[in-house]
Amino acid sequence: MGAIGGDESVQWDKMNGAEVVNGGGSGAGSLDRIQVLVRVRPLSDKEIARGEPAEWECINDTTIMFRSTFPDRPTAPTAYTFDRVFHSECSTKEVYQEGVKEVALSVVGGINSSVFAYGQTSSGKTFTMTGVTECTVADIYDYINKHEERAFVLKFSAIEIYNEVVRDLLSAENTPLRLWDDAEKGTYVENLTEVILRDWNHLKGLISVCEAQRRTGETFLNEKSSRSHQILKLTVESSAREFLGKDKSTTLV
Ligand code: ADP
Ligand code: MG
């Protein structure tokens, strides 16, 4: 990440992020396909009790400012620019509406999309992603209810990567799963459970199962934090009811 002091700032995401993830060379249009958002969480009660100051401040919708409070290491304030920054008073709903919704809902139109949270332990990844998942699923079901002309099938799978080992969170078996590369499917997880969803409550139940299955590693920062990566995958398939069972029927995935 680059940084310049004072009131200049760096457009970090466009320079470094997009090319790496898109594999490079797919043209200028690909740049807009990655959005980098920052969310600042409020100080915890412990942090407040210890008298720790908030060093990060969102000065507008896209810029975040770092002011070091180390007395023996004074540095100039540094500004960083992202597609969007959310200050600590923002609700998860706002983060979702303004930062995530469009990307998440593009799946119903056949677009492959992913939302992931990256950050230090205790920075608020689980808190944010739990809310974001809830909002996304509510909106997807809302979309389905409003489009009765199409028949939808939703499939759900979930894995955990812990110490480089891949585990199926929807299976009681503890055997590590293997990753394979396939010319057509890309990278996939062998023998992964995929559940066809009955309704939203079914999915809520499965997400709780995943949460219970996750290993909790103890760290100094946050006793409840799990030092593992969780990937939830929802596949949305739909076909026009009018053509169901006929030659012309096609399925959008
Ligand atoms: P991570 O998953 O990144 O390790 P958590 O999501 O577990 O971090 O968050 C650490 C703690 O901070 C939790 O107790 C969580 O409830 C709280 N927290 C995180 N983000 C917020 C927020 N935006 N508002 C209020 N509390 C938050
Ligand atoms: Mg977490």
UniProtKB/TrEMBL annotation:
Annotated GO biological process: microtubule-based movement
InterPro entries according to UniProt: Kinesin-like_fam (IPR027640), Kinesin_motor_dom (IPR001752), Kinesin_motor_dom_sf (IPR036961), P-loop_NTPase (IPR027417)
Residue ranges of domain Kinesin motor in the record: 33-253
Pfam families found in the cross-reference section: Kinesin
Cited Gene3D superfamilies: Kinesin motor domain
SMART domains: KISc
Positions of ATP binding: 119-126
GO cellular component: microtubule
Descriptive protein name: Kinesin motor domain-containing protein
Organism of derivation: Aegilops tauschii subsp. strangulata (Goatgrass)
